[in-house]
Structures are given as structure tokens and as C-alpha cells.
Amino acid sequence: xxxxxxxxTNSRLSLMKAGLEVWADWMSNMYEKPILEHLQTFEQxxxxxxxxxxxxxxxxxxxxxxxxxxxxDRTDLDGFFYHWxxxxxxxxxxxxxxxxxxxxxxxxxYQSGLNFTKKNLATAPRLEGRFTVLYQExxxxxxxxxxxxxxxxxxxGRFHLLRDFAFGNQPFEQTFITGRDYGGQLIPLxxxxxxRCWKENLALMAVSSEALDWSKYVCDLHSxxxxxxxxxLLNPFLEALPVVLSLQTVYADGEWYxxxxxxxxxxxxxxxxxxxQSIFAACYYQPxxxxxxxxxxxxxxxxxxxxxxxxxxxx
Length: 315
Description:
This protein is α+β, with helices and mostly antiparallel strands. Helices cover 32% and strands 29% of the residues. A five-stranded mixed β-barrel has the order 1-2-3-5-4.
């Protein structure tokens, strides 16, 4: 059984809970005053609270608070409300921390500030096998460059996310090639419903002529909703999950539609015009397997599967 005490001492947990009281009071106060009428106060206080979260070992909450830009010229209100509601979700779980099961406690600690390292994961189970790199995304996060690499475990069929960082212009520890297979070990984070992992001893494998049977991963939109429901019961903080859909483009009543293999309409696609054109063309009146990311934003296509081969869409 997972024991959060293996990763967080009682003294650190007490420090975190004390910091949470300051954060909770501030969140409550913000509900009672119009933010745009008190913008300067809001901006000052959110950075002060963010700094105090770092002192309380709640650095990830502090980082999320720094993203709460409420400037009057801000156009991404969806982003503001998303970060705000995510913070409120975290707070609601902290307020009943002692009643959570150990796995969810550890997950909450991780989402709030705990970082796993190879050292404190020394005894965690390793997952050995062949892993296909499905997608990579790079982003600047404060003074760091962040990289997200999504893998498919070709033997177990599960998706895993490696998120690592590089400082300034320094290279990442290892370079990955999208669409290629790597052999070695991943270390899944030790709580239920996690897709996050560490890598260990991954090596590029020779190009294989073996075609993966992607049809076994395909789901329709109805079963996808059920799948997401089950996953979120285990990990309510999950923000995105790779999915495999069989899609077909049709033209009716003067509009283009994207349908799954049950003829259900996919209402929201995410990506550049080029990506959208590529996916619509690939699926033109013929069911095509499309791999991508499902999130609050919609479905972001990564690749199509042609004759069993993974074909990344150029961004």
C-alpha cells in the first residue's frame, strides 16, 4: 500500500497545511470583491501568496497562482478561470485531506508541491518494454524550458507522460524522435490513475517493419466519456489523456463534419489550420485512425495511422 509518509515528513506536512490556511483565506476573500475593481490589490496579493506558497513547500500552487493574470487587457479569460477553478479543486481536496485514501493523498501532495526524483523512487516498480514516442511539446515556463513527451507502451497499451526541464539554452538530458521506438524502463509515479513517469535507460531501437494493431485502442466518443469518468475517479487532477479515434470527414448541408465510427460528431478540434486541413484530408470519406490528446480544449490530433504505421502530423 502507498504510504505518503515515505515521501513527506510530518513536519513538512504541517508546514504545508499551515500555508494552505493563508491561501484558503485569500481565495475566500477574492470571492467577495470584484477583482477588476481591485486589480492592483489582486496583483500584489497573488504574488505575495505565491511566494508564501513556495516557503510552505507548495511551489506548484505558487506557480499556478502566478498564472492568474487578471489584467484588464487580458484576452485569455478562459485560461484565468481554468487556473482559478483548478486551484479551487485542489483546495477542496486539501480541506478533507485526512479523509482521502493514501493514493489520493500522495497525488494531492504531488500536484501541490512534492517532486518525485529517481532517488525517492528507487524502490518504485519499473516498467520495462518498448515505448513509442507519440508526441513532443516544448514550452517556456518562467526561466526554464519544459518538454512533454508522450509514450505508448507497446506491450502494455498504456500511455505515459514524461515532463522534464532544461535551463536556458542547455540541452535536455536525452533527445527523442517522434514516431520511433525506445527500449528500456519507465518509472510510473506511485499513485492511482497517474500517467506521469520518469525515464530510465531508454535507448533508440532499430526501425521495425512490424505494424502495430491500433484498432485495439480505438474507442468511440460515448465510450471515451465513460473512460474519462473512470480515470477521473482515480485521478481527479488529470488534465489530459491520449486517445485513439476512428474518424471520417463528411460534407453535409454546406458544412464539414468529423464523425467517429458510431457516427457521433466530434464537435471541437484543436490545432493550427494546417493540422486541421491535414486531418480533414486524411479522413475524407474514409474511416481513419487518428491519435491525439483529449482535454478541456477538445481533441488535438497528433498523427494518423496508415497501414499500421504511425504518421505524425507536421505542426
